[in-house]
Amino acid sequence: MEQYNMKFIAPNRYPSECQITIYRQSGIVIATDIDKGMSVTNACAEIANEVVRQYGINPQRMIFIEQYRPGRPDQTTDLVRFDFADGKAFRHPDWTHIPPDDFKKMIQIAEETEET
Q1: Where in the sequence is the domain holding 39, given as residue range(s)?
Q2: Rg (CA), the chain
């Protein structure tokens, strides 16, 4: 597992930052909102594109997960699917909620996969 604080320029040109967690073996990338600039929800396509650029993630294998408001009662964790039809950039995000127990299992499997 790798973890970074990634700076990016949001669609409104506002300097922003989020935490990125990468599980390379499983292709899982988690973008966690850290309240610096635009939210991960509003900038998820830009974040996904920047993750591919900065960290060399294969865009065809990436499983992009967004965490918004971690540790708060209104925390959300979502799988984000994008339109990548042109093969150049992620756009048109579509969110699917991941229940907390399912997310824990997913991360446990990703961690086990990283160790092998």
Answers
A1: 2-115
A2: 13
